[in-house]
């Protein structure tokens, strides 16, 4: 029976397993960002709350993109169980440092998938994952810039208010300044 099921998909078991892990990681990111949005709301950082609500939505879209791919390839996409979502954070800056750590972890994970896909000659998955490789350049840039704002603007006086207002305005121009 198992062999028959596998005939319905060209996805190798290892690829299906790591893609399902990535589905879970994206869903976990979505849940963490939602908790961060709520923390920002509770602590008066309205603009940052909006930013994290948006990020949470983005991560859900990432999760679905991989979920649909696994399904479309005839594989078994697993609806993830999400645990260990932190509901409280040490402070305004800590949230953004944690978000940057999360994005770096996602980038490393995406790179591992691409590496495995190449080892196994899975060109479809390799090509599919390139969208995520590019997306992570932007996601990491924005997360890193957010942390930088704490040093550039400073947290004293109206600093936090200014940082909060500046967060949603961060945008990635794809390295246009080098042109
Ligand atoms: Fe889907 Fe921000 O990684």
Description:
The chain has one domain (12-79, 87-169): Ferritin, core subunit, four-helix bundle (Ferritin). The mean pLDDT is 94. With 179 residues, it is mostly helical. α2 (13-42) packs antiparallel against α3, α2 packs antiparallel against α4 (92-119) and α5 (123-153) packs antiparallel against α6. The protein contains six helices and no strands. Helix content is 73%, strand content 0%. The chain is elongated, with a radius of gyration of 19 Å. It binds MU-OXO-diiron (FEO). This is Ferritin. It comes from Larkinella arboricola. It is found in: Cytoplasm.
SSE arrangement:
Blueprint: H1 2-7, H2 13-42, H3 46-72, H4 92-119, H5 123-153, H6 159-166
Helix pairs in contact: 2-3, 2-4, 4-5, 5-6
Bound molecules: MU-OXO-diiron.
MU-OXO-diiron (FEO) binds next to α2, α3 and α4.
Shape estimate: elongated
When the domains are counted, the total is: 1
Task: Count every beta strand, where a strand is a DSSP E run of 2 or more residues.
Answer: 0
User: Cofactors and ligands present?
Assistant: MU-OXO-diiron
Termini gap: 56 Å
Largest sheet: none
- The whole-number mean of residue pLDDT values reads 94
Determine the structural class based on helices, strands and strand pairing.
mainly alpha
Annotation field: number of helices: 6
Binding site for Fe cation: 26, 59, 62, 103, 136
Domain Ferritin-like diiron: 9-154
Subcellular location: Cytoplasm
Keywords: Cytoplasm, Iron, Iron storage, Metal-binding, Oxidoreductase
List keywords for this structure.
mainly alpha, 0% strand, iron storage, identical protein binding
């Amino acid at each position: 029976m198992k062999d028959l099921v596998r005939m319905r998909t060209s996805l190798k078991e290892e690829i299906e397993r790591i893609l399902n892990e990535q589905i879970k990681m994206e869903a976990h990111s979505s849940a963490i960002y939602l908790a961060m949005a709520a923390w920002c709301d509770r602590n008066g950082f309205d603009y940052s709350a909006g930013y994290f609500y948006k990020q949470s939505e983005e991560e859900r879209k990432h999760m679905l993109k991989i979920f649909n791919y696994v399904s479309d390839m005839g594989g078994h996409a697993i609806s993830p169980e999400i645990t260990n979502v932190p509901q409280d954070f040490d402070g305004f800056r800590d949230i953004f440092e944690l978000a940057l750590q999360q994005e770096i972890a996602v980038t490393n994970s995406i790179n591992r998938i691409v590496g495995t896909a190449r080892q196994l000659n899975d060109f479809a998955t390799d090509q599919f994952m390139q969208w995520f490789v590019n997306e992570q350049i932007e996601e990491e840039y924005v997360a890193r810039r957010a942390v930088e704002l704490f040093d550039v603007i400073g947290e004293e006086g109206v600093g936090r208010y200014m940082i909060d207002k500046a967060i949603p305005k961060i945008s990635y121009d794809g390295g246009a300044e080098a042109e």
